[in-house]
């Protein structure tokens, strides 16, 4: 049975089911745990070596001195690997009842049936359910959990793993490389168009859990794919940690869209590194929705390395009481005629804090590049705070660079008009917020747009007074 819920506002985080684990590692991280994890997964020696080297880097790296406050994050009080008692299955009915109930509650099975080409579901440290439409498999599309991909396609895996996000990139990339488990491996052959989205769902269920999935996407020449990830966790009084790494390789003429709808509970530290390499005439779009967590630090990036490459980030951040959403994007123009656009929308209320942090870089000699940033913040009350930290590093004169930013509050005129039409103040504020975020929400598939509007309405409850 799910944990009873008495408050609609917290219902999205309150439910949880008791689960059992076949490998319940102790809290904290050491060499013994890394050896145990690698042995459990029957990995090749070269991967164990990578893990151990990354652990050394993790110990040496300091926490970032910029961004959100991470001083309360206790690495010694985290479970770095929990293996559920279930094996991976391909039929929904074969999942254990407690895990199946969790995913039924989240609506994953219905989404798979109605509008997805494939589904991956991760619970704690392991992917337990995976499916893909038969016609895609027949075209050579690979959609596997990352652990299985390491065993089945070691040459491809070794060619790309850690090439965009090396362990030395930052402290949390090093941590992920040391203890990664689960995640998605997606390979789209040349010329194949995947018309319906592939989705992965990541669920933290246990208290003090650390989830460290590793996602690797390779879109060959002139292919296309839309990958969606969703995240959630129940609320606890102590902190959990989500620290993922995503590497995407978009080959010549390919198109990749990566959508995140993140709704972690307010006790989760969400510290993620996401990066794409974009070749000639290819395009990469990140749609990044951040509604939950205690702290988020996430800056999806595009390395535009081929002529005519395009990159876009649509970033949405929503912070309430005790939340800090430090989100943004990075665009690196490393070839001629590359274009990028960043649209950032943030809302803060009840003392929440949002920050836009971005980097736009044009390399010397990269001619005729264009980059544009639109950064808009909506502050709901006097207790809340919004900051903008844009960095522009333009080393080439033959370039077009645009940046615009606005900070506003809810208009009294808008509220008066909507309330004069019979709406409550709370409902009127919710409509105004949805309208403010509409440029990003409209980019989502219909079902996800409806869901994110519902989540925002839940977040808005209690905003008045």
TrEMBL record:
Every copy of the SUF system FeS cluster assembly SufBD core domain together lies at: 202-436
Its GO biological process annotations read: iron-sulfur cluster assembly
What is the protein name for this chain? Answer: Fe-S cluster assembly protein SufB
Concerning Pfam families, the annotation shows:
SUFBD_core (PF01458), SufBD_N (PF19295)
Source organism of this protein record: Candidatus Roizmanbacteria bacterium RIFOXYA1_FULL_41_12
Upper classification of the source organism reads:
Bacteria, Candidatus Roizmaniibacteriota
So what family is this one in?
A: Belongs to the iron-sulfur cluster assembly SufBD family.
* Domain SUF system FeS cluster assembly SufBD N-terminal, residue spans: 38-199
Listed PANTHER family = FES CLUSTER ASSEMBLY PROTEIN SUF (PTHR30508), UPF0051 PROTEIN ABCI8, CHLOROPLASTIC-RELATED (PTHR30508:SF1)
Looking up InterPro entries in the UniProt record yields: Fe-S_cluster_assembly_SufBD, SUF_FeS_clus_asmbl_SufB, SUF_FeS_clus_asmbl_SufBD_core, SUF_FeS_clus_asmbl_SufBD_sf, SufBD_N
């Amino acid at each position: 049975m799910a944990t009873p819920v008495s408050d609609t506002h917290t219902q999205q985080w309150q439910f949880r089911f008791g689960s059992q684990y076949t490998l319940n590692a102790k809290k904290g991280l050491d060499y013994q745990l890394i050896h145990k994890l690698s042995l459990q997964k029957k990995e090749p020696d070269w991967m164990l070596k990578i893990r151990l080297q990354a652990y050394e880097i993790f110990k040496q790296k300091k926490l970032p001195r910029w961004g959100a406050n991470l001083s309360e994050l206790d690495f010694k009080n985290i479970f770095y690997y929990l293996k559920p008692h279930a094996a991976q299955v391909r039929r929904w009915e074969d999942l254990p009842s407690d895990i199946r109930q969790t995913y039924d509650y989240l609506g994953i099975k219905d989404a798979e049936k109605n509008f997805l080409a494939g589904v991956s579901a991760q619970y704690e440290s392991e992917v337990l359910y995976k499916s893909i439409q038969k016609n895609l498999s027949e075209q050579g599309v690979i959609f596997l959990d990352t652990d299985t991909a390491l065993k089945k396609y070691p040459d491809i895996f070794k060619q790309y793993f850690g090439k965009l996000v090396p362990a030395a990139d930052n402290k949390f990339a090093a941590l992920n490389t040391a203890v990664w488990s689960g995640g998605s491996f997606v390979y789209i052959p040349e010329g194949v168009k995947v018309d319906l989205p592939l989705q992965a769902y990541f669920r933290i269920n246990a208290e003090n859990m650390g989830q460290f999935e590793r996602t690797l996407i390779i879109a060959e020449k002139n292919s296309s794919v839309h990958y969606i990830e969703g995240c959630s966790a129940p609320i606890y009084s102590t902190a959990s940690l989500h620290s993922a790494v995503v590497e995407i390789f978009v080959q010549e003429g390919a198109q990749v869209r990566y959508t995140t709808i993140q709704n972690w509970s307010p006790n989760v530290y969400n510290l993620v590194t996401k990066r794409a390499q974009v070749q000639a005439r290819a395009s990469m779009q990140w749609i990044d929705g951040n509604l939950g967590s205690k702290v988020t630090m996430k800056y999806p990036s595009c390395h535009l390395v081929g002529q005519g490459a395009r990159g876009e980030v649509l970033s949405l951040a929503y912070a309430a009481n005790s939340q800090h959403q430090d989100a943004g994007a990075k665009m690196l123009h490393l070839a001629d005629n590359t274009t990028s656009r960043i649209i950032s929308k943030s809302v803060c209320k009840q003392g929440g804090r949002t920050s836009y942090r971005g980097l736009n870089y044009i390399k010397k000699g990269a001619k005729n590049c264009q980059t544009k940033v639109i950064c808009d913040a909506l502050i709901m009350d006097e207790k809340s705070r919004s900051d903008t930290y844009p960095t522009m590093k333009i080393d080439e004169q033959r370039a077009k660079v645009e940046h615009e930013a606005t900070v506003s509050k809810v208009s009294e005129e808008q509220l008066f008009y909507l309330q004069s039409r019979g709406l409550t103040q709370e409902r009127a504020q919710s409509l105004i917020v949805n309208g403010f975020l509409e440029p990003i929400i409209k980019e989502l598939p219909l079902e996800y747009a409806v869901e994110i509007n519902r989540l925002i309405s839940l977040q808005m409850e209690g905003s008045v007074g």
